Amino acid sequence: MGGHAFFVHYTSGGDEFLLIAMLKLREGAGIDEVSLDLMPTLVIDTDKLHEAARLNVTRWQFGEEPYLTFIKGRGADEVTAYFREALSCVVYTSSKHHTSQMIAAASAYVTSLPLLDQEAKKKVWTEVRERLFDCFSSNKEEVVLAAIAVAVDPLQPHLFEEYVTTGVGAGTYQVSHQFKPDRTTYSSLRRIRGKMGTVAVAFEVEDVRQGRVAYDDNSDALLIFGPSADLKKEIEDNVTPGP
Length: 243
Known about the structure:
Elements (H helix, E strand, L loop, with lengths): L3 E9 L2 E9 L1 E7 L6 E7 L6 E6 H5 L6 E5 L4 H10 L8 H17 L6 H21 L4 E2 H8 L4 H9 L12 E2 L3 H4 L4 E6 L2 E6 H5 L3 E4 L4 E4 L4 H9 L6
Antiparallel strand pairs: 1-2, 2-5, 3-4, 5-6, 7-8, 9-10, 11-12
Helix pairs in contact: 3-4, 4-5, 5-6
């Protein structure tokens, strides 16, 4: 499990970062500068770049969560354990936080798209919500940023990756390159839940799009259209008669 610890201290988006990676070397070939002959040398084995940790020093100094994120290769669970232990990292940001941050970043990314009016952005966001839900539900144990980027922007996924790693969203949304999606959180992409006193409501986003559920601003009321006969009877049977 040995290797060489690699530290990079840099600033991005106004925040100070410290990147720590464990590098491994392998035998390779180089070219002699004088004779131009091939000669044995040691090179970084990128196939064994299992994991790196990035510490947002600025957030850490101000006590803001999360300040530590990991980048790790698929199937590197054993390496993850020793790497995190070596960094004395015993507390991890919850999957709920990562999931909600990724959804918020996707929404902000769609909002920032140029050359689209509000109606067009709403249509795009509707499509992104569906793809994001499918992406999370298809990768319940672990989802990677590359897969999420394809769900957000199928034609140019690299733009979303850049947005959350080095672009405008990097300083706002602290996302992990790999995490376990939180089902309750990503279910909100398809299902709306809420409470009004003791009244709990839950319905699909599609019900709103199809006009089965609506909000009336004038009466500040939630309207449900076309209730089933059983539901109407249940309500009528339990209504207290007026004076």
